[in-house]
Design goal:
The protein has helices at 2-16, 19-41, 51-56, 71-101. With 106 residues, it is an all-alpha fold.
Length: 106
């Protein structure tokens, strides 16, 4: 059990542990909190602030187009899309670092 926990921790650190992925997650969280606050304080009920977190997590958040609406579904899609996109960013940063280190020309 300790080995699997250590392996999971190592994998999460390698996936989300770089500055780019963490900065992206922080940006998505800030945009989502801002959108919720703006929507709650809007008296007219016509706030379109949720568009910004959806655009920040695109293209993964486009799955919302085929799912039923509602605040719970929007929250789940934004959170999952941000995690998927951060994992891709972390993987790309890891691959680029590995490529730069193994370059024989340098």
């Amino acid at each position: 059990m300790t080995d699997s926990r250590r392996s999971l921790t190592r994998r999460l650190r390698r996936t989300f542990g770089n500055a780019f992925a963490l900065a992206y997650l922080a940006l998505c969280a800030a945009l989502f909190v801002w959108a919720i606050l703006v929507s709650v304080t809007d008296d007219s009920g016509e706030s379109m602030a949720i568009i910004f977190p959806l655009l920040a997590t695109a293209p993964t958040s486009l799955v919302l187009l085929v799912l039923p609406g509602g605040i719970v579904m929007v929250t789940a899609v934004v959170v999952l899309a941000a995690l998927v996109n951060a994992a891709v960013i972390g993987w790309c940063a890891h691959a680029l670092r590995r490529g730069v280190r193994s370059d024989p020309a340098s």
